[in-house]
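B., you asked whether I could sanity-check this one before it goes into the benchmark set. Here's the sequence:
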Amino acid sequence: MAGLPPLAGVFRVVDLSAGIAGAYSTKVLADAGAEVIVVEPPEGHPLRRRSASGRQTDPDYGGVLFQFLSCSKASVVVDLDVADDVAFVYDLVRGADAVVWCEESTLCRDARLSPERIRSLAPHVTVLAITPFGLDSPWRGRPANEFILQSMSGSAWNHGPSEAAPTMFGGSQGEYGIGIAGAMGLLVSRWRTMRSGEGEIIDLAGLDVLHLTQMLYPVTFLDLTGRSYRGRRVDPIPGVHRTKDNRWVGLWVTTGQQWLDFCVLVGRDDWLEDASLGLMDNRSMRSEELVGAIDEWASERDADEIVELASAFRLPVAEVVNGQTLPKQEQYVDRNWYTKHPRSGVLQPEVWYTLSGGAERVTPLPSPRLGQDTERLRTQALSPLLPVEATPTRSPELPLAGLRVADMTAFWAGPIISHPLALLGADVIHIESAQRPDGIRMAMTRPMTAPGWWESSPFFNGTNTCKRDLTLDLAKPAGREAMLRLIAECDVLVENYSPRVMSQLGLDYETLRAIRPDLIMLRAPGFGTSGPWVNRVAYAPIIDEASGLSWVTGTPEGRPQVVGAASDACGGMHSTVALLLALEHRRRTGRGMLVEAPQIGPALNASAEQVIEFSAHGVVLNRMGNRSWTVAPQGVYRARDRVHSFDGVPPDDWVAISVETDAQWATLCEVIGSAELAEDEALRSVEGRRAHHDRIDAALSAWCAPRSAAQAADLLAVAGVPAAAVIPPHELADVPPAVARGLYETVTHPVVGQLRIVGWPMRSSAGPRRWHRSPAPCLGQDNRDILEGLLGMTSAEVEQLRVDGVIGTEVKVNLGW
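And here's what the prediction gave me:
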């Protein structure tokens, strides 16, 4: 089987969905070799009519975003008013291994194609059901899109000045996050089905995905501190700054050392000597002073000069790029990360991973004409492709039990790669050292004078549940030797260090595969393991800026904004999918491989529309605040503030509204009682409403102002208009859909006590019923169990490792580290 894409000939998916999330899920599978059949109504998939630039879409092939998402797929057209067409869909379903279903699809609204009906027709099929709030949610059927889900996920409080409305991030990154979560769910489900012959329903709620990906565990932070993330909305320091040549450059500081280096970079000895500025909170209190000074410094230098200088200091830095400048970046050109659509020649991102070990990349086929495969597939008898064991067994609740993973990752983007594996039963061993623990432990909530302060990071606790922890000082020969013995017992190694680190440690892939020939090693550095940017430091904000996501976030008149943590979380989930594809290739061939999954790759895919629209039409998509490229009206409107405050932060209440259709517009006018707007012919099309957006905003602001955000949102949503209150981070666990689904689970940590942690954003009819079965591990808590129980060392040998400082359970760093 060598030489094939991982899913070629072994996976067939019928796609009934209608939005970006479903289309991206199936694109990910098609890119890996799966056969994907898109079932469309007579008018075609809604994305065929999408044009973010406002340009005419192709009457045969649809808009450029649809074409990007639909390479290598087949298209059939059905009319559910025709009995033969219903039977045709049933035949397709019976011949499939999986079905992608979503609530917004006109096809899926037909009860004859409900998830339950599909499963009754084809018990072997897994149905991925994508909804805003979940199949079992009391809010099922309530209208919502990504803008509304963002408003309920907390991250809007990161964007925009304090006196203005919270600002959602631009583009469609949330949809891509939902899509990659769905692809992951389907790949994991294959493991169950191959053993049992039975499918399942994967209940994927978009809100759950955004609660996981949009902010770094604010509810866990609340439990540890009693405080909220929410405060004054201020620009990060440093952040995004305009340069002498009228470009934008983003700089980022996370560690204390990076702040000191930044002070040297900008020549501010007074900042360097002011110890109070080492804390982010203190810098925020002096935001106006510091940001103004950095703006002045940046305005005297060209963007390229700033990037070169900051890179020399090993500071995280990137130019803020857009759809025109993105494909021209030297790293992306060097690595061939943009390719041409096979029919139109329009530039589009490549897949984000590189496989080896004989696994070939799919050569993409052109996206289909509407219905081009209908007649062919009507006459073709399809049978499921998924191989099932000769003697099926009961579907396991933890399908990845028996898989062992060495997790050499840090911060968030890395640990989240292995986190779903641990939640699904894999033995994930997180490897750090007492001398250099996982850096995200340093984002602690207890002072360094408190016992076990390194266990108080909400971020470490959020992304490492169900894992074991082993400390090894790999700079010592005994530590490296123990690591090599561990590799012999592992199926997978995951790391996201700077590219040079593993070879410096003597843990390069060739060395490790000599010990474990079928090892899968996944490397996930920020910008890849080669190319001009190989040594650049990458955090989520830098990925936002280098991918174009920042360019479209913020107001037109303001500076671009960083999206937040989503590039870490979504990047990590993409790497998990690449890892699952590598495991499938090993299942078929017995061969391990080296996988490269740079963090920038998923972000380039999430910002694809910017590059595609410029390549096709010469249009640069710009930031629009809370407005939209494709729907109108859309905005965030001031509601009546509540009387109470939290954590000293005054009440600040807003309602998000997004009108997607002409019918919703008519309903909106009726709910707010505006005959004037309803009767205006100019407003009966999205183009007209966009042209008169200011006037509409004034009417919506006046209507929302005397009402509470919840009351205004409920009146609109119940009537059928997408709307929601903008939820502050400290209230996320109290959002009714999250409460109803038990999204937040409580664990008891031996040092910091009870913590609520957001669950994994999907439910399976096959389980598990609970995700977080154990808390994140304490530093080195499993040293003895792993070294003695797994590696066979004696108690005396392990004790010697402790005495020699190779292992440890307390951080061995000075307070200024």
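One thing to flag: Residues 332 and 338 are 7 Å apart (CA to CA). Otherwise nothing jumped out at me.
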